[in-house]
Design goal:
Elements lengths: L9 H11 L4 E2 H9 L8 H11 L3 E5 L2 E4 H7 L1
Antiparallel strand pairs: 1-3, 2-3
Amino acid sequence: MRQSENYPSYVSSVARALSASSQPLTIDALVQEVCGERPTNKSTRSAVYRALKQLYQAVPIGPGQYGWLSHLLMAN
């Protein structure tokens, strides 16, 4: 088993962080959440952005801030 298989994917980590949060999260907060689940390196921020592009439920709500679609819809 490769070492990376011991950790959740970036997509899974970002989805978990956003879906668990009732409030939108900044990129910095998402990176911090992902760092709690995976080893970090200089490309972690880029990997979080790539993960956000793969998640249709991750909705940009402002510069560098993302919310989880179902939470945003329920808030309105």
